[in-house]
Amino acid sequence: MLKKILVANRGEIALRILRACKELNIKTVVVHSTADEKEMFVRLADESVCIGPPHVKSSYLNIPSIISAATIANADGIHPGIGMLAENSSFAKIVNDHGFTFIGPKPEHIDKMANKIKAKALAKKIGLPVIPGSEKNIENYKDAKLTASSIGYPIIIKSTNGGGGRGIKIVEEEKHLKSNFLLAKKEAEQCFGNDDVYIEKFLKNPRHIEVQIMGDISGKIIHIGERECSIQRRNQKIIEECPSPKLDEDKRQKICELTQKAMEKINYTNVGTVEYLYSDGEFFFIEMNTRLQVEHTITEEVYNVDIVKEQLNVASGGKLSIKQDKLHKTCHSIECRINAENPITLFPSTGLVKTYHPPGGPGIRIDSSLYTGCNISSFYDGLIAKVISTGKDRIECIMRLKRALNEYVIEGVQTNIPFLKKIINKTEFQKANFDVNWVNSIKD
Amino acid sequence: MLKKILVANRGEIALRILRACKELNIKTVVVHSTADEKEMFVRLADESVCIGPPHVKSSYLNIPSIISAATIANADGIHPGIGMLAENSSFAKIVNDHGFTFIGPKPEHIDKMANKIKAKALAKKIGLPVIPGSEKNIENYKDAKLTASSIGYPIIIKSTNGGGGRGIKIVEEEKHLKSNFLLAKKEAEQCFGNDDVYIEKFLKNPRHIEVQIMGDISGKIIHIGERECSIQRRNQKIIEECPSPKLDEDKRQKICELTQKAMEKINYTNVGTVEYLYSDGEFFFIEMNTRLQVEHTITEEVYNVDIVKEQLNVASGGKLSIKQDKLHKTCHSIECRINAENPITLFPSTGLVKTYHPPGGPGIRIDSSLYTGCNISSFYDGLIAKVISTGKDRIECIMRLKRALNEYVIEGVQTNIPFLKKIINKTEFQKANFDVNWVNSIKD
Amino acid sequence: MTEKINKKILDDIEQLSKAMEKNGLSELTYSEGKAVYTLKKRENGVFSEFPEIVEKNNKEIKTKNLLENALKSPLVGTAYLSPEPGAKKFVELGQNVKIGQVLLIIEAMKTMNEITADKNGIVKKIFVSNEAPVEFGEPLILIE
Amino acid sequence: MTEKINKKILDDIEQLSKAMEKNGLSELTYSEGKAVYTLKKRENGVFSEFPEIVEKNNKEIKTKNLLENALKSPLVGTAYLSPEPGAKKFVELGQNVKIGQVLLIIEAMKTMNEITADKNGIVKKIFVSNEAPVEFGEPLILIE
Q1: What ipTM was predicted for this assembly?
Q2: Does residue D96 carry a pLDDT above 80?
Q3: Residue of B nearest to D49 (CA)
C-alpha cells in the first residue's frame, strides 16, 4: 500500500481523500495556494505545502510546483481529485515519469476519452451503444446535409473539442441546417480556438444515467451499479441518485454488464464513469469520465463500499477487494450539491461563513470543507458541500433529504439550498418524472 | 398515523425523535424548561411549550405540566424519549388515560420489568436464562448463608430496588458473607429507602450483550439483532457495537430467537431491549429496558432500519413494517458517547460551547444537539453527542471512528473524547478482547 | 486615575448593552458630562437567518418588553378569565384588586387552578385572552 | 504616564472585562476625567484548541515576524546554498550583493532555478538552510 500521498486538489474533495487516507493509515500532504492556507483540508492534512498564489494556473494547475512539492515531501503517490488536473493525461504521465504513483487510470485511457470523437469511436468499437452521428469532423455544409439526412432530424451540432454546453446547435429541419452549421463552426472557433464540429442525432428529452466502473492492474473489472443525474441546471448536475428510479432490474443489469465488459476490452484501471443518455428505453454513450466523480458518494452508500479507499488500493497495485457477486443495493441514496451562489441569478456568493451548522442524525452524510469562520474565495469552484441522504427506499430518502436541508445553517454567504428545496418538493421530482431539461423548464 | 406528538424529553434524544417525525410528516411539540429555551430541540420543533424551571422535578418530570402542554398543543401522542419518564409506568398510564397515545410499551410491561426480582421471575417463566440466585428478598443472614452455599461462591448481593452499581457487594467466601450482607442491607436502606436485597451467582468477567426487540399490537414480535456494550466506565456504557465481535452466527441466532419467543409470550409491544451478561458461552438475563435505548443507532445502521419511525408506526396502531426474514446485517457499527466532563476526574463540564464542528464524510453519523454558541447546563445529563461510525467490517469501522474523533472540535467545555481515543487505540479493544470490567482496569 | 468603577458604571454598561440588543446595534457611543462610553457587540451570526430563531427572538423581546413585574403563570394550561362561559370576568382593566383576589383560572389536567393577586393595586394590563394556552413563566396580568 | 498601574486599575480592568463578558461585548471604551479604558476581547473560539491550527498560527507569526521585505521563494523546491556539494556558498552573511547576483538555487522537477538578488545591499539574514525544502512565498534571504 502507498505510504504517503500528495493530494493535488482542494475543498471538499481534498477532504474526502484525506479521510480515506486516514482510514488506511496513509500519510497525507496537501498542496495549497496562498488563499487556502486556512482551509479545512490544509488543517486536517499531516503536512501542507504552499505552492503558489490564488489563481489556479499558478497553483493547483502548476504541474512543476506540484511535482516539486511531492518531491520535497517525500510522497509516493499523487491523487488528482476531481477537476483541476484529474483528466490531464500529460500530468498523469509526468507523475508516473517522476516515480510517483498516479492515483487514477493510465494516461492513455485519460487521453483517449478526452477527445469526444475519439472517445465515441472507441466506445463503438468496444460494444457500447452510441448516438447515430458523423463519427468524424464535418468539414462543409454538403457533408453536414448528407449526414443529417442519413441519421434523420432533429440533429445536434457540437464542437469536437468543446464542453459545458457551449457551441451547441439543435436543428429540427433541413431548412435551418446551413445557418446553424456555420454558426456552430464560428462559435467553436471562438470558444475553443478550433472550428471542428460533428453531427449527432438529437435526443429530445433524455435522462442522464451513468455506470460506475473500477478496475485493478490484474485486468479485473467490476461495475458498481448506475446513478441517475438528470437533475441539471444549465448543464450542471445538482441532484444525483442511486439507483435510477427509472430503470428496472433488467435494464440496469444489462447496461452495467455491457459497460463492465467494454472496460475489460481496453484493460481499464482505477475508477471511471461511463455516461449515457437514456431515451425511449435505449442508452446512448455520451462520454467517459476517467476519474472519481463528485457523486461517487451515493454509490458508496447504496453498495456499502468506499470508492476512494478502493482507488488507493488498486493504485497501490492491490487486487480489487470488492467482488462483483458480493455487491448488492442495500438502500436508496440522493446527493444534493450545495453551491455558494445567489439562488436566483446563480452568481457566485463569496465571503466569510459566519455560522456553519450541518445537519445530522440517521442517514445523513455531509461532505463539506466549510466551518464557522472560513472564507469562500472567488478564485475557486462554488461547490461547498454535498448532502447525501440515504434511506431504505426512495420515499424515506427524499423525506430525510428534506429535513436535512431544513436543518442546514450556512450564514454569511448565499447558497442554492432554497432552490434545492423547491425542486425536491415538486411532484415531478417525487414521482421521478423528469429528464435532463426538466429543471430548466421550471417556471415558479 | 399519529398527526402531532409531544416529545417529553430534551437534548439529543428529543432531536432524534423530531427528525423521525419530520420524515413522517408528523407535527411536533416539545416541552422545555426555562434553561432550555435556546436548545436545538426547541429550535427545530414545530411548537414549544415552556413547562417549568430548570430542575427536572419541576419540568421534565412534572407529569401534570406535560399533560397540560399536550392538551393545549392539541397533540395526539407523547414520546417519553430515554430516561426522564420513559420507564415510569404511572406516566404511561396517565398519558393513555388522558386520551393520548403513549409511544412506548404497555404500562404493565413497564411496571413488571421495573422491579428486578419480579423481572427475573418473569424472565425465567418465559424461558430466558437467568443467573442462579435467591429469586426473592433475603431477610436474614441464615437465609443468605443457605442461598449462597446452594448456588456456590462467589456471589453478589444486590439491592432489589437499586441500580447504577450502588449497594452492591461481592462475596468470595462464606467467611465474608455476614459482614457484607449487613452492609448491603444498610446501604440499600440509605440509597433507596428500602433495605430489600437479594443474592445471585457472581459472574467474574462477563460481557454485556443485549437484544433489540420490536412488537406491534397485532402480537407480531421481531428481534433486530444484538448489541455488545461491554465498554463501560463506572457502570455507564460509553462504547457500544453491533454486531457483537464475540458471538458467532449460531450463538447470535439462538439468543435473538429465544428473546423474540419470550416476548411473544407476554405480547410485548413497541420497543424494548433485553440485557444479558455473557460468560463462558452462556447468557444470563440482567434486566429489560422497556424503552428506546441510547445505542439504538448502531442497530439502525447495521440493519438499515429506523427504529424511532417504526416505534411511531406501531404506536399509531400500524403493523410492523419490518419483516424478520428481510433483516440482515449489512455492515459493522460502533457508537461512542461524548460526555461533557473532565476526562480524568469525570466531573461534569458545563458552560458555553465556543466552537462546535462535527466530523463528516462517509460512514459517520452524528446525533447531537450541540451548536456553536449553545450552553451546556449543569441541570442535565452530560451526554452531548453520539458519534456513530459504520464500515463494511469492524476494522474499517474502528479506523473511521478514529479519524472522526480526531476531526471533532468542541471548544469551551471539556469532553471525554481524549479518553475514548485512548480506548479505541488499545490492542484489547481492537482485538475485541474485553469484558465489562476492562475499562475500569486500564492503568494508563 | 482616581475614579472608582462603581456599581453605577457597571449598571450603565448593562443598560446600554441591553439597549443595543433591543435596537439591533453593533456599536454604541454615549457621553454625558465627563463620562464617555463606547460599546461594541461581536458580529454574532449564530443562526440569525434560522426562521425558527427569528421567531424565538421576537418572542423574547416581546417577553422582555412586557414589564418584568407582571404576574407570571406558575403552570402550563388553559387560561379562563371568567368563572364559567358567558359569566362576568374576574377582573377588568383599571379595576382595583387586593392580595389574594382571584384574577383568572388556569386549567391543567382537568383541574381548575385559581390565580390570585400577589399585591394590591390597579389592573394595568391583561396579557392573556380567554381560553388561551399559557406557558410556564408567561406574563398574565400587570398590577401596579 | 506617570501614575503607577496600581491594584485599583487592575481591578477596574477586571470589572470592565467581566461586564463585557456578561453583556457579550467585543470592545469597550470608557473614559471619565483623565482615565480612559479601552478593552477588546479576542474573537473567540474558532478551532483554537485544534492542534494543527496552533501549529499554523505559530508558523504564521514566524512568517510575519520575518521581515516583510525579505526575498521570497517564487517556487516550491529544494534550496541549495552552494553551486555543488562541498563548494563555497553563493553568499555569506554580511556580504555585499548586487542586483542580479545569484544568491541560491532552488531545484524543482530536476531543474536548477537560480534565485538572484532583487536589490543591492548587504545580506542581513539567510532564512533557509542547505538542501531544505521551501514553499512558495517562504522568505529566503534578507538584503538591506
Answers
A1: 0.80
A2: yes
A3: B411
Q: Is it the case that residue D60 has pLDDT exceeding 90?
A: no
When pLDDT is averaged across residues B361-374 and rounded to a whole number, the result is 96
Which pLDDT score, from 0 to 100, does residue C48 have? Answer: 44
Nearest Cα of chain C lies from the Cα of A416 at a distance, in angstroms, of 15
Per-domain boundaries in chain A: 4-103, 132-201, 207-441
Is B132-201 a CATH 3.30.1490.20 domain? yes
Count other Cβ atoms within 10 Å, centred on residue C44: 14
Tell me if D32 sits within 8 A of B398, measured CB to CB: no
Q: Give Cα separations from A66 to A394, B318, D56, D113, D139 (angstroms).
A: 42, 60, 21, 16, 19
Q: What are the cell numbers at B420?
A: 475514548
Which residues of chain A are within 8 Å of residue C48 when distances are taken between CB atoms?
355, 411
- Using 70 as the pLDDT threshold, list the residues of chain A that sit under it: 162-165
Q: What are phi and psi of B314, to 5 degrees?
A: -70, -30
Interatomic CA distance for residues B53 and B65, integer angstroms: 11
| CA dist., res. B358 & res. B6, Å (int) | 28
Residue in A13, A5, A55, A66 with CA at minimum distance from that of residue A33: A55
A282's grid cell: 435505449
The pLDDT assigned to D43 comes to: 46
Residue-wise DSSP of A103-130: SSS-HHHHHHHHSHHHHHHHHHHTT--B
Distance from chain centroid for Cα C69: 7
pLDDT at residue B164, as a whole number = 59
How far apart are the C-alpha atoms of A340 and A117, rounded to whole Å? 34
- Please report, in angstroms and rounded to a whole number, the separation of the first and last CA atoms in chain D: 36
Q: Average pLDDT for residues D122-136, to the nearest whole number?
A: 92
The structural domains of chain D, ordered by start, are 2-55 (no CATH), 71-143 (2.40.50.100)
B152 or B215, greater pLDDT: B215
Residue for grid cell 507523475: A95
Pick B4-103's CATH classification: 3.40.50.20, 3.40.50.10330, 3.40.470.10, 3.10.180.10.
Answer: 3.40.50.20
Q: Which CATH number fits domain B207-441: 3.40.50.1240, 3.90.190.20, 2.120.10.80, 3.30.470.20?
A: 3.30.470.20
CA angle in degrees (0–180, nearest 5) for B165-B82-C136: 115
Cell output for B350:
458545563
Question: DSSP state, D45?
Answer: -
Residue C8: the pLDDT is 73
Closest C-alpha among B112, B120, B87, B111 to residue B284: B120
CA distances from B233 to B165, B201, B203, B442, D36 (A): 11, 22, 18, 10, 54
- In chain D, what percentage of residues exceed pLDDT 90? 45
Catalytic residue among A291, A337, A365, A400: A291
- List of chains touching A (3+ CB pairs within 8 A): B, C, D
Kindly report the average pLDDT of chain C as a whole number: 76
* CB of A362 less than 8 A from some CB of B: yes
Query: Residues D9-25: pLDDT tens digits?
Result: 667 777 777 777 677 67
Average pLDDT, chain B: 94
A412: closest CA of chain C, how far (Å):
8
pLDDT band at D2 (very low <50, low <70, confident <90, very high): very low
Best A23, A365, A371, A397 residue to mutate vs chain B (most B CBs within 10 Å): A23
Contact call for C47 and A355, based on CB within 8 A: yes
Tens digits of residue pLDDT in A143-182: 999 999 999 999 999 888 766 567 789 999 999 999 999 9
- Residue C46's pLDDT is 46
Q: Going by C-beta distance under 8 Å and a sequence separation of 6 or more, which residues neighbour residue D42?
A: none
B418 closest CA partner among B332, B350, B336: B336
Average pLDDT value for residue range B148-162: 88
Known catalytic residues of B? 291
